[in-house]
Amino acid sequence: MDALLSEVTYSHLLELFDGNGGSSACGDVMMPVGACRGEGPRVLFVGQAIGGGPEAPMRSAEEAHARFEGYANLIGSARPFWRFIRKTLEGALHRRTGKAASLGQLAEHYGWTNLALIGSPLPSSNPDGELLERQVSACRDALREAVETMRPTSIVLLSNEYASQIRSAITGSPEQGRRRVDPLVRSLDVIDGVVDIPIYWTKHPGWLNRNGLFEPVSARLAQEL
């Protein structure tokens, strides 16, 4: 997988990390990764954020690329986030080719990033408050850069309420009418200017799993990609 941000962009995120208290107050600084070449569907999956303190503070884009490319290998795990990506891609590729895809083949068809790239120091927690407000503009620009670098055929936002929270931090006002009941909807509100790529917005896979919607939403999405 390729790094989806330049060294300059990642260095700016590291400066924000240091300015927010470093490893004592922040989690990992994510490097988005993805498949930038190849035929067939290439889907950029956008999660929420990484919780928990960093393994060790990263000081370069190269180091971050290696770490997060390794995390992306979790696509074979049973965790709801990664299982959703795997099941959705398997369904989409099987619909096109009639054949089952290996994990190695799946890696040629997806990318991974998060809405917030500087994580919370708390396990299973998303950054909010001042930590979110200080990074949200940079993360919005980084999301655009990741899309421009990968040029995916589709984008899937695996978050609903947190995407609204990100947007609220940008505009400075509460979201109105953004809490969707339908667990799979299209939206162009979060990524301004990306109008030529289908964007799908669904609940987080953990929520889908708890509410019995994991399989039907994954299957429906696989038909769209």
Automatic annotation (TrEMBL):
Annotated Uracil-DNA glycosylase-like domain residues: 40-212
InterPro entries: Uracil-DNA_glycosylase-like, Uracil-DNA_glycosylase-like_sf
Pfam families for the chain: UDG
Superkingdom as given in the UniProt entry: Bacteria
Protein name: Uracil-DNA glycosylase-like domain-containing protein
